[in-house]
Amino acid sequence: MLNPAKLLKMKEHWTTFANNHPRFVSFLNAVSGEPMEAGTVIEISVTKPDGSAKCTNIKVQPSDLEMLEALKTIR
Question: Could you tell me the residue range of the domain that residue 65 belongs to?
Answer without folding.
Answer: 36-75
